[in-house]
């Protein structure tokens, strides 16, 4: 079986868990005998081509004089979007809510023969323009590759998946890693919601990363339950490394938040829990590792509480720096307001770090050895952190058993279930 897969990012050039999941998935599918052609807007270098045939959309020439492209091109309207908009992070205010009217009354055929689009692969103000152009490139890629099924990850690639399906008649599977309700709560952006629903309705099968997300897809997007299958994410195994000492300085232990500093991830609740713990424990420090649209407000809140000497901001971490951060941590906290899954707790548990996670997360459905609290209950969150810091037997038990939980979640098992979804999609196409 061969899959044409559309994703907006791929390691090592990632902004969060989506790219990491795509890599693990491709690796697992390969072990299941499934070949993947993975299309990204832009290859930056360093991508592991051993797990998939990588296609750089920026290198694909499109002949816009062809009727199918010309009709598509002439009806495009672009919306300028804030740079903080990413496929699974918080939606910031639009920079410009007005549709930019493009003058397409004159179509210069010569100028658009074998046209290449230079994609940034980032999340900038022209994001919607890139999404639509990516869909045109998807048609060209689909027409020049042999494959059995199309797989599109999250809303940025849904239109590409739909375009490829229309061009080839091959079945479409869309993978929901997050929804607009996760990113924004009830302040849903209708444009993004519309694209998400368009992709779900066009898909032959839908994969969600948890039952939590599956319920949202069914209830909020009006999708038939028998069309939606939950396949939990996993975590890549790591070679055993010497665990670093649990201290930053002066023998203080470290409690870590690692993720995007945005509404969905609940950073403000981490700060309030930190305040309560610091009042009782003078030998603990807190680290917020990540970046996002709420970073400045969080820094101001920490300063206002007078916690700056024991609360640190590292900025966005990747690769070995992430492993190093886990190695320094005594407790990891994921206080997400709405988390479709949550790979970061698995990464922490893989490093023998006990974790505290919100009940409002998909990963809470499958982890038996994590302390679970409601994201808004900062008192319970603080109590859980304090307990893991001050009761060594409890921390040791959760660290050891948690590591076993994480190791049991393998991408090969997830890929086997995904392959089953492919077969189901092909049988009805």
Task: Describe what you observe in this structure.
It is a single chain. By secondary structure, this protein is of the alpha/beta class. It folds into two domains: 251 residues, Glycogen Phosphorylase B (Rossmann fold), CATH 3.40.50.2000; 156 residues, Rossmann fold (3-Layer(aba) Sandwich). Helix content is 39%, strand content 15%. The protein is built from 14 helices and 17 strands. The chain has a seven-stranded parallel β-sheet, with helices on both faces. Helix 3 packs parallel to helix 4 and helix 4 runs parallel beside helix 6. The longest helix has 18 residues. It is globular, with a radius of gyration of 22 Å. It starts with a strand and ends with a helix. About 8% of the residues have low confidence.
The CATH class of the largest domain, by name, is Alpha Beta
What is the helix tally? Answer: 14
User: Based on the structure given, which CATH architecture of the largest domain is correct?
Assistant: 3-Layer(aba) Sandwich
The total number of structural domains is 2
User: Kindly, what is the distance between the CA atoms of the first and last residues, rounded to a whole number of angstroms?
Assistant: 15 Å
Strand count, sense and barrel status of the largest sheet are: 7 strands, parallel
Write the layout of secondary structure elements.
Layout lengths: L1 E5 L10 H15 L3 E6 L12 E4 L4 E2 L4 H8 L3 E2 L19 E2 L14 E2 L10 H17 L5 E5 L4 H11 L3 E5 L3 H5 L5 H13 L2 E4 L2 H11 L6 E3 L22 E6 L8 H14 L3 E6 L5 H10 L6 E3 L6 H9 L2 E4 L9 H7 L4 E4 L12 E3 L4 H13 L1 H17 L2 H18 L1
Parallel strand pairs: 1-2, 1-8, 2-3, 8-9, 9-10, 10-11, 12-13, 12-15, 13-14, 15-16, 16-17
Antiparallel strand pairs: 4-7, 5-6
Helix pairs in contact: 1-14, 3-4, 4-6, 8-12, 11-13
């Amino acid at each position: 079986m061969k899959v044409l897969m559309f994703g907006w990012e791929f390691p090592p050039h990632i902004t969060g868990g989506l790219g990491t999941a795509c890599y693990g998935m491709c690796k697992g599918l390969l072990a299941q005998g499934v070949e993947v052609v993975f299309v990204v807007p832009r290859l930056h270098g360093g991508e592991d081509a051993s797990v998939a045939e990588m296609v750089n959309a920026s290198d694909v020439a499109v002949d816009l004089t062809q009727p199918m492209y010309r009709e598509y091109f002439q009806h495009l309207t672009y919306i300028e979007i804030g740079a903080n908009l990413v496929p699974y992070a918080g939606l910031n205010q639009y920079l410009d809510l007005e549709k930019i009217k493009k003058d397409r009354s004159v179509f210069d055929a010569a100028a658009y023969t074998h046209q290449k689009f230079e994609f940034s692969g980032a999340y900038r103000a022209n994001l919607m323009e890139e999404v639509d152009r990516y869909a045109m490139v998807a048609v060209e890629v689909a027409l020049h590759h042999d494959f059995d099924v199309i797989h599109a990850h999250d809303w940025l690639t849904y239109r590409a998946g739909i375009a490829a399906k229309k061009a080839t008649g091959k079945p479409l599977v869309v993978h929901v890693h997050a929804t607009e309700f996760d990113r924004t709560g009830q302040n849903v952006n209708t444009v993004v919601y519309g694209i998400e629903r368009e992709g779900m309705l066009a898909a032959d099968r839908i994969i969600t990363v948890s039952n939590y997300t599956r319920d949202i897809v069914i209830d909020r997007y009006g999708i038939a339950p028998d069309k939606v299958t939950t396949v939990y994410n996993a975590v890549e195994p790591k070679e055993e490394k010497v665990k670093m000492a649990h201290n930053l300085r002066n023998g203080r232990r470290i409690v870590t938040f690692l993720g995007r500093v945005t509404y969905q991830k609940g950073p403000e609740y981490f700060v309030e829990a930190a305040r309560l713990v610091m009042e009782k424990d003078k030998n603990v420090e807190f680290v917020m590792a990540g970046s996002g649209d709420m970073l400045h407000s969080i820094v101001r809140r920490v300063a206002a509480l007078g916690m700056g000497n024991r609360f640190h901001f590292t900025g966005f971490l990747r690769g070995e720096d992430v492993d190093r951060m886990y190695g320094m941590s005594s407790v990891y906290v994921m206080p997400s307001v709405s988390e479709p899954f949550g790979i970061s707790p698995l990464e922490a548990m893989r490093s023998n770090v006990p974790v505290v996670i919100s009940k409002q997360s998909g990963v809470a459905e499958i982890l038996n050895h994590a302390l679970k609290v409601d994201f808004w209950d900062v008192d319970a969150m603080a109590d859980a952190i304090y307990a893991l810091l001050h009761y060594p037997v409890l921390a040791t038990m959760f660290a050891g058993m948690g590591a076993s939980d994480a190791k049991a979640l393998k991408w090969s098992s997830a890929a086997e279930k995904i392959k089953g979804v492919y077969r189901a999609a092909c049988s009805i196409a």
